[in-house]
Each structure stands twice: as C-alpha cells, then as structure tokens.
Amino acid sequence: MEFVVLPDHQASREVKKLVPRSDKARVINHPSGQPWIVGHWSDTDIVSADAGETRMVLFGPVSTSAAELLRRLERVRTVGEVDSLARSLHGCFHLIASVSGLVRAQGSISSACQLFYGSVAGVTVAADRPQTLATMTGAGVDEELLALQLLAPFGPPWPLSARSVWRGVRALAPGRHLEIQPSGVGRTRTHWTPPEPDVPLASGMFALREALEGAVAARVREGRTISADLSGGKDSTSLCFLAARHDVSLVTLHVSSSDRANEDRLWAERSAAQLPGVNHVVVPMSDTPGFFAESGLAAAQDLEAPLTMTRRPLTEYIARFAASRGATWHLQGVGADELFRPSLMSLHALIRSRPLAALPHVRAMKSMRRWSAVTTVRSLARVETYRQWLSASADHLTAERVLGTGAGWEVASRVPQWTTPEAVDAIRRQLRRSASEAPDPLSTLPVHHEMLRLIQANGTIVRAGSRTVERFGVSFQAPFLDDRVLTAAMSILLADRHKADQVKPVLAAAMRGIAPDSVLDRQSKGDFSPDLYAGLRRHRGHLLELFEDSHLARLGLIDADGPRTALRGMHTDAGMLMPFDTTLANELWLRSLPSHASLTSVGTEPVLAEGAS
C-alpha cells in the first residue's frame, strides 16, 4: 500500500502526473472532481465513505465498516468534528478526510502509520512515504541529517527526529494532523496531547483492557486465518489469548533460542496448550536465516531513511511462515515494554509526585543495579529543561555510554567511535541549532516524552518491517502501538505502574482473567543475545567486505577501519553492538540509493544531486 494526498485545487491534476506509477494508480476524487488520493492499495486495506461534500478514507486495520462509517460521517460538518469520530475507533490507520474542500490527513501517534508532507508545484501534498514526495520534487538528501542518522541507539532526538533525510519533507509529529486548504496552503494542528497520569489502576485497567480487546478485534476477520508471535512472555501471549476469543484460525509461531537456559519455549508451549484450537509451531533458530544473514544484507532497502534491520532475514522468514499458513496479518507484541515496564524516568517522576511511595522502588532499583547511594541520587537527580538537555546532548556525543544510569528526556544518543570529527561537528551544529530554537518536548512530563520517543522508534520498526515483507502479502501488526492503547496506558497513575513483585503490573492487571495467571506473574524473560553473537560470527566475513569500500567512508562520515575492528573484536555486552547496527543500516541504505545519485563528502553540496530520487 502507498498513497499521495492532494488538495482540492486545480493544480492537483498536474501534480497527480508526478506521482510515481500514476498511470497505473488508483484514484479517489474530491467531491469537486479534482484528484484527492492517488496510489496503490488493495480493497482489504481501505474503508471509505462518501456523504456528499464530506468524504473519508481509512487505510489500515480499523474497527468500523463502510456502512457504519457513512452513518457517522453524515453528521460531520467540519474537519474539527472528525476528532471525536477518530478517537472512537480502534486500530492503527491513516485517516484522510475531505470536508467542503478542506483536507485533513493524519497517521497514528506511534508512527506505525506515519504521514509526511511537503510542497509540490506550489501546493501542499502529503504521502505515506517521504521518498515519494522527494521523487515528485526532484529533491535530494540533506547531508547533515544523514550524519544524524549515525546516532545510536534510536537516531536523532526530538524534534530532529521529525525531519526526513529527504530535503523539503517533514514528518507529522505525534498527535498532530495536516490540514490543506483549497488554496493548497497546508498547516498542522494538534488533536491529541499526552494524558495526565491521574487514573488509578483499579479503574484504568478496564479502559486498557477494552482498548486492547478493540485493537485485536480490529485485526481479525471472522473465519479467516491470523498468525501471531508466541514468545512465552506477557506481551505476545496476551495478544494470542485476545485473538483466540474470536472465530478465527489462529497460528502461533515460536522461534526458539539456541540458548539452553532460555525458558521461553517452555512458557510458550504451556500457553499454547490452553489456547483453543491453536496451531502452535516451534522453529529452532538454527532453522531460520538468523541475524546478519547475507540474504537480508543484499536486499534492497526502503528508501525512507536508514533503518536498523539486523533482524531482516528473520523478519522475512516470519512473513513467509505467515503467508504459507494463509495469514495476511501477523501479530507482534512490539511496544509493550515501553508502555508497561517502568523506566528510570518513571521512577524519577514518581519521586517528584509521591516521594514516600517511590522509596521502596528506589531501594529495589539501587539493589538490582548495585548502585552506591551517590550513584542513586545522581541518577535520579532533577532533569534540566528540554532545551538545556538537548543542548547538553551535543557535548556528550562522544562520551562513553554507561547503560542503566542517569535520567534524561530521551535515551542518550552517542556517535559510534568511528564517526569522523567532521561528521561529529555536523551533528553538534544540528543539535545546538535545534536547542537554540527552544523546542517544546512531546510532553511536559519527561517520562511521557521518553515513552513517546521510544514508542515512535517501535512504530518505525513495525512500519519498516511491513514494507520489507509486503511482497509476501503479509503485514506486521502491533496492537500495543494503537492510539487508544497508548492513551489508556499513559493515563495510569505513576505509583500504580510500579509493583515490587510484578515486572509489568499494569498489563498484568488488564489481562487478568484472559491470559494465564502463570504467564502474567512471570518475572523472567529470555533474549536472543547468543543467537546475535552466532549470526555475527557466521557472517563476519561478508560484513567485513561491506566496509572494504564503504559509502559512508566515501562521504567522510566514518573511518571504515572502525567498524571492521569492531567486527573482529570481542563484545561481552550485546548492547554495545548498537552503534554497529546503526552504522550498518546507514551503509546499506546508501548502497540502495539510485545508481545515478551523485554522492559527495560532508561539507559539500549536496549528497544527492538535484533530480535524483
């Protein structure tokens, strides 16, 4: 699925011709007859309704039918009235409305459904892919923003994260939508802000349960097959039990770690035994391509931006599995950690709102992380304003990363140690320039700002993963990233998000009576670190070859000897491979750019020649 949104303006007929593959595209018109939405999609991707001068299109899983949408749309007279309709829907979707010539377009808070916009032929145009707009305008890549993509682990901080690497293209911020006047002038407006965490868990868990039930229900089709991860943890298990309540054929997949100490397989099999009629499949990691496989590294990359896809070969394996079972949607538990596992920033906020309630959790964290009293106080000290934090982050780009210490508005960004001084300077300029503009954070509460940034990182992963496998006819779906789920989770009192004997107490409370108590009370969770190392060893030779003639090095962004040295080294902590993963993503992305692109080094104009796409 891909689409472009045009204004109700006479220029749209000419702009439509600039849309890639426009001669074979599907077109939905404004009530005036001007082209409105141009692109490629299947009938299962879309729910639409036409009520005279008001039209609406929803792309993606959503809890409404065309008939129901029409009944509700008949009462809409202004684009502002779209708010209540949108908030009432479950699912994760793009919403596009045309009301008396005024266009409203938005994606999801998580960015799993993201929307980009820019100016084409003098009018504002939106699209679900930034490279589409770049192709229409002949824009190239912003080289300073390309340097920012090297930042690990999640790329540039807000608001630089909302800027596309393609010149002249912007991404909608969380909770904002785009309005395009009939004149072609566009502006963004806010329709959602983070809720205050003022709802007790005793009542909030019911709203969260309803949101999760609705999120899964929006993705099931009665009598059809749906596939899902079943890792053995709370997240995927909860989704599987919610899906099993519907009249669907449920196929669950567990990719088993090669680590014999990993108990996830046992927990997954216990859960599968309690799922009615489930077809549970266990696949040893050794039977999959694993991590860093050459098949994934050699594949064409999504041109949106450099996106870390170390798991891409495994991602494609899962998609093939889902397709072989007749499923078009595959459920994943992505996003639950960020919503339900209390972070250091959550504890930081709790200390300031209810210090006595926070003390037991401070002691527990001090013990768990083996902190001294001084380290504990320093780690939970007052956080500066967002402007101060953003400015200070420019000074710490090359500092050593110490995992698990220090509270900040976002996970601290660091450049890989092989980044060139010129690239580091380019990144610092961008950060300081952004800080000088005093940007507002995504939330006045640091813990919610952090949560939104992490949720957006997850949304990007899901979006990129789905595009990677769309040729198999499969879409990855992450119900925890839905707007209504996110809002319900963020509304819970900070004090109720912490519980000494629960890893994710809010999710456990919401799913009690639906998922097995034994899983909801589970305190441990395995990971794939041994398999990550195994993939690195197995494919080290090919990875080394990639950096023999590095595009990043040609641009003056890295010293190619750095990642090659890292590949040959020993790593006691898999987290330290994050900088390499980010660098690899950038290298592969550059190699996927069109062959006629003119690449130049840092400090020259531009990385891509005008006219390249």
Description:
- With 613 residues, this protein is an alpha+beta fold.
- It folds into 3 domains: 2-139 and 161-190, Aminohydrolase, N-terminal nucleophile (Ntn) domain (Glutamine Phosphoribosylpyrophosphate, subunit 1, domain 1); 201-339 and 462-520, HUPs (Rossmann fold, 3-Layer(aba) Sandwich); 342-448, no CATH class.
- Helices cover 39% and strands 14% of the residues.
- The chain contains 25 helices and 17 strands.
- The strands form 3 sheets. It has a 6-stranded antiparallel sheet with strand order 2-3-1-9-8-10, with helices on one face. A 6-stranded antiparallel sheet has the order 4-5-6-7-11-12. A 5-stranded parallel sheet has the order 15-14-13-16-17, sandwiched between helices.
- A hairpin with a 2-residue loop joins β4 (46-51) and β5 (54-59).
- The longest helix has 24 residues, at 446-469.
- The chain is globular.
- The relative contact order is 0.14.
